[in-house]
Amino acid sequence: MDLAVDLQGITKRFGAFTANSGIDLAVRRGEIHAIIGENGAGKTTLMNILFGLLQPDEGRIALNGKAMVIDSPAVAIAEGLGMVHQHFKLVPSLTVADNIFLGMEIRRNGLIDRAAQIERTRVLSQKFGLRVDPSERVAGLSVGIEQRIEILKVLARDARTIILDEPTAVLTPQESRDLFATLRSFVDDGMTVIFISHHLEEVMEVSDTVTVLRDGKVVATRPKTSLSKRELVRLMVGRDVSFDRRPRGPVDGKAALEIADLWARDDRRLPMLKSASLTVRSGEILGIAGVAGNGQTELAEVLSGLRPPSHGSVRLHGQEVLGLAPAQIRARGLAHVPGDRMVRGVDRNASLSANMLMGRQDKAPFSHRGILSWATAHAEMRALIKRFDIRARGPKDPARSLSGGNIQKVVLAREFTAGGDVLLIDQPTRGVDIGAQEAIHDEIMRQRDQGRAILLISTQLDELAALADRILVMFDGRIMGEVDGEAMDEEAIGLMMAGVDPATPVDPSTGIDPIGAAAAPAFPRPPASEEVR
Amino acid sequence: MKTLPLPSGLLRTLAGQALAFVIALALGAVIILMIDESPVAVFMTLMRGAFGDAEKIAGTLLQTTPILICGIAACIGLRGGMFNVGIEGQLFLGGFAAAWVGFAFSLPPVLHVLVAMLLAVVAGAAWVAIPAFFRVRFGTNEVVSTILANYIATLLTSYFTIFLFKRPGGWSETPPILESAYLPELFSFSRLNIGLLIGIALAIATALFFRWTAKGYAVTMVGSAPKFAEYGGINVRKVGFGVLLVSGAVGGLAGGVETLGVHHRFMEGFAPGFGFDGVIAALLANGSPIGTIFTALFFGALRAGSLLLEVDTTASREIITVIQALIILAVSADLLMRRRGDRTGERRWKF
Q1: Would an 8 Å CB–CB cutoff place A349 in contact with chain B?
Q2: What is the CA radius of gyration of chain B?
Q3: Which of A79, A454, B8, B72 could anchor a disulfide with A285, C-beta 3.0 to 4.6 Å?
Q4: Beta carbons of A272 and A266 less than 8 angstroms apart
Q5: Domain boundaries, given as residue ranges, for chain B
Q6: Which residues are CB-contacts of B178 (< 8 A; sequence separation ≥ 6)?
Q7: What CATH class does A3-237 carry?
Q8: Widest CA span of chain B, in angstroms?
Q9: In degrees to the nearest 10, what's the CA dihedral of A180, A186, A188, A192?
Q10: Cis bond leading into B176, ω under 30°?
Q11: In B, which residues are within 8 Å of A306 by CB distance?
């Protein structure tokens, strides 16, 4: 068998902790090999060993059939290995071409030959179908394009085996799909792709072979075709996890959050929220579906007071709150779990207690006459760690020492206990382990059963299908339509997510792309009045 | 004080800075060798000049006082995410304001000092209010605007001194302040005054404020995670403005202490570089007010020791500036390395 990568019995210990234990991994040339496992299962450690960033304590490595010792990334690169890291390492002030050739600049007479670099970048970009503008500066580019640059960087170094560490974590679904198409074309060219993920759907979509890691051990290596999603979950988590629809009683609460004709602009000053109207009742979960970047973030930010609205009305329990400061909106009963939890949701370097304190630092029992009681804060955090099953040693741990799922639980714990009865939850399980996802869903359902009104924004349809009573679909800043959570029609949601107005009939017999056919009448240019709002 | 969550992190910080000091001193020794002096003799002279006897120690503490108060001013800014490099200017204006109250008005003893100090504080705060306003309103970089404000402040006070309030006679200085405005001295043999106690009390109060009050928590959060603070309902602009104002006020206070306690008049260039030394002392202490007590003492000792250095050896006083610069280089290299370790793979800087 023609193996691009052959690892045998790789073991790596960090002190008393064994990150990788006797791992065998055989990656055939010309396949997409997914390595899947929960956070902390040892995926990244294994890849760092393969790439020469870490040295294994035991085990053998063979690349392209040759046994080798990879004691630095340079060795790995020379052998045709390339790694695209989860967090991009680009220099924002340099151009795309400069970034790609950083450290291996094309030189002429001792000076950097920029024209040649730009030309080489253009050729590479064309050859692999990764569209970039070589002379553009990286600073203003989207993450999707930044990732393309990272991949081009690897290709410029003549990689034949490409490792991607959680490549889709930062991408929108369209960008992910583009990426998958690119990976597929690599494989068709005879290259090999190793793809690290904890996202089931992607793995099922893109890979040929799947290796599942759990607690630093290989649980299974199988062709994708022989695996079902359910089976994959059981292998990853070690038990059955249910993502079925949660059983629930009927909604009979009063309207708690009413939004009428709400408009707002995005950071580029373009209208991004267009006449959104909705109502959430107490004891109800209203889901907002949609491809990321269609106004959901702006909606959440306007509701919580972080973004100035252009026009409209937002009522909390009948009281107008639009235009109030975030603190005042909180005081009127809105709790907010932000979508960007690492930036908005926590201070990574502060302790858990300090993170829990945010928003209640001047309220009893945490402070009296402006003097903080850290003892009370630590005690409260200790209680929350227990109640929300947060995996942390104690309340004084810095937030950055926790995994993504546990950080999210800290945010949920703070917001769910803040006293608000309207919960605005943005992407509750993005980047969170499957086991933790289930626990977070349990907690959201508990909040519903306690009569809280919940606005749940998610890009994951299965999450909405499990939790939401009703689902609204957003596209291009508008609410396209509503779907009943009990009888969710994925087809209908998918069309609305793509911008097809459900009111516009589409003739199925013609077989014409419904998006192209319907989009034109459904989206007239915004009237001039919008521009001056 | 349990200000840091990770004791190992604290240990790492101390060990790293100690190493940086050693490297800087070693480099300093090389330079001293280059001017044909014995490094050992120079260091011994420095030590004797700084701590040789009670008078010398008092002299060191006298130099430490303004650096310490300026350092606390810088700490306050740093904690709130504001880099106030304009402390030198606030010090000059505060010093002038206190002197003006001291010579132009006649008030009962204690009240005279209080009014003079109050005006020094107001002058410092008012001076930083301009850059602070532009910072929170338009996002102007406060580092640049406060540095520029320094030049205006020093020249403005010179103008006041030379053209408006000059004492008859040779020197460019104001008339002496009345005795009712003197800060009480601690010992008979030195000009060391209660300004030192004010500085230490201020350091402790600042540390307690950040650790134990809701406002201090809000300031810390705005400094370390502004988006998180905004989301949590803290008014980031208001806090940023307030932090700069208080920082400037403390800078003004440093000037007041220096005039009322030491010189008893305002003169051109009365406190050269104390503001900048304070900023550096605060940076070396990583923004910790308590740590600043020790870094300020170190700089004070260097300044005091250098006086004897010129008398007893052929080395010039400027060698101290060189050593100081080396220490700053070494410690900031350590800080940078640590930061790089902390943010592996994360992209925090974007132009």
Answers
A1: yes
A2: 21
A3: A454
A4: yes
A5: 65-308
A6: B102, B103, B106, B112
A7: alpha beta
A8: 64
A9: -100
A10: no
A11: 230-231
CA–CA separation, A160 and A163 (whole Å): 10
Assigned fold of A248-333+420-533: Rossmann fold (3.40.50)
| Band (B332; pLDDT cuts 50, 70, 90) | confident
Asked if B296 and B67 touch (Cβ cutoff 8 Å), the reply is: yes
Asked whether the predicted pLDDT for residue A172 surpasses 80, the reply is no
Task: Tell me the average pLDDT of chain A.
Answer: 87
Q: How far is CA A31 from CA A5, A169, A219, in A?
A: 11, 22, 20
Judged by CB atoms closer than 8 Å, whether chains meet at A370 and B217 is answered as no
Cα of B190 vs its chain's centroid, Å: 22
Cβ atoms within 10 Å, residue A218: 21
Mean pLDDT lowest among A266-275, A500-509, B340-349: B340-349
Which range among A184-198, A497-511, B26-40 shows the weakest confidence by mean pLDDT?
A: A497-511
Residue B330's pLDDT is what?
A: 82
Alpha carbons B327 and B24: distance in angstroms, whole number: 5
Indicate yes or no: CB of B214 within 8 angstroms of CB of A372: yes
Residues of B in contact with A396 (CB under 8 A): 5
**Which residues, at least 6 apart from A193, have a Cβ–Cβ distance to it below 8 Å?**
A31, A32, A33, A161, A162, A164, A183, A186, A187
Q: Which of A164, A122, A128, A123 is CA-nearest to residue A147?
A: A164
- Does pLDDT of A516 surpass 60? no
Q: Which residues of B touch A92 (CB under 8 A)?
A: 347, 349-351
Q: Are A271 and A476 in contact (CB under 8 A)?
A: no
Question: How big, in percent rounded to 5, are the helix, strand and coil portions of chain B?
Answer: 75, 0, 25
pLDDT tens track for B237-292: 999 999 999 999 999 999 999 999 999 999 888 878 899 999 989 988 888 999 99
To the nearest whole Å, the CA of B231 is away from the closest chain A CA by: 6
Total Cβ atoms within 10 A of residue B19: 13
Q: Which residues pair with A263 in a beta bridge?
A: A311
Q: Is A326 touching B (CB cutoff 8 A)? A: yes
> With an 8 Å Cβ cutoff, are A344 and B228 in contact?
yes
Q: Give mean pLDDT, residues A491-502.
A: 81
Q: Answer whether residue B79 shows pLDDT above 70.
A: yes
* Interface residue A357 vs chain B (CB under 8 A): yes
pLDDT band at A501 (very low <50, low <70, confident <90, very high): confident
Q: Rounded mean pLDDT of A166-179?
A: 78
Fold equal for A3-237 and A248-333+420-533: yes
pLDDT at A229 over 50: yes
Mean pLDDT score, A428-433: 82
Please determine, for residue B147, whether its predicted confidence score (pLDDT) is greater than 80: yes
Partners of A400 in the beta sheet?
none
The confidence band for B346, taking pLDDT boundaries of 50, 70 and 90, is: very low
